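Person: Please work through this fold.
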Amino acid sequence: MNVKTFVKKYTMVIALVVVFIFFSFWTDGKLLLAQNMSNLLLQNAYVLVMACGMLLCILTGGNIDLSVGSTVCLIGAIAAQLMSKHNMNAYAVIILCLLLSVVIGMWQGFWIGYIHIPPFICTLAGMFLFRGIGRAILESKTIAINNKTFLDTFASYIEIPGLDKDVKWSAFIAGIAVACILVVVTAFNRIKKAKKGYKQASAVSQFAKIAVIDLLVIAYTWKLAHYKGIPVMALWVLAIVFIYAFITSKTAFGRYFYAVGGNEKATKLSGINTNKVYFLAYTSMSLLAGLSGLLIGARIGSINGDTGNSFEMDAIGSCFIGGASAYGGSGTVGGVVVGAILLGVINQGMSIKGLDNNWQYVVKGAVLLVAVIFDVVSNKKTGKAG
């Protein structure tokens, strides 16, 4: 792989590294403090979760879901009221809220997939509808969430008695374990592909890539070990990321989303039910928006009528910044994660420096525009743009 190919393939990863180094120096190293590194994950957990679902919508042809921020508010409002006013069991509330999220997604997926209402219009209507219902349920108040079981399910930290004291060694041990697993899985996959005669990258380049990832994992968990350890929220995020990465890269069903975005007519002629693909994309998106509502409620400890404002923009921005094509049919969960972390580093760095929120919007808008311009120009060069 020559330098030009390498830069093109890992453009956003390189950008993330550059931005991270810049803010590390600009904040006089404060970004690297253990608490800030932990908060980097916690404050962007909802973005990482929702961006995975948004990717499926974008893959179908550059479509988006504008209602996810309002869904976050609605589901958070329902959860808060059920626990604070009706003292309902936390686990029952979680299950009920996730089921309601699926119903919301099925509602939108039906209109988009089977009645063929443009996604932009349908989800724009949902944005107003769900926000209004959420505010009505909250009665224009801020509802606190004090249910310990609920908070522990989403916002606690993993701690092993006897091992974790001033330093949470369990976090560091977990990091080493993950690093070892990545090496083993990579080696196993190489052996499997070699037996089948598949062409693959050189062992040196592949294991060098894994070595870099392992070092980052170990370094990050070392930082977590010097704060409060591994947050439970990280497990939720990792579970969603791995599930959606598996679906999009390892299953035939996951390839349907790429096929619809690449050429919907050809996909339909090949026997794939494209209506169902749209339906499931938006159902999945709402489910993850509902989960994000629970994560946000647990992290902040309250829900109000403005909860979830502009969350849809963070999810959409993460996808496009992470390499998802504005035309659909292209993008990866790994890229989305990079995009979300890039936005998170920018937000965190500017917050540490005490810059006005308005400038955060300016920077995020500029980064998003550059990412989309890069995608459009690249597609024109390869003849994919319409």
Notes: The chain is about 75% helix and 0% strand. The beta strands are 143-144, 302-303. The CA atoms of residues 179 and 215 lie 8 Å apart. The first strand starts at residue 143 and ends at 144.
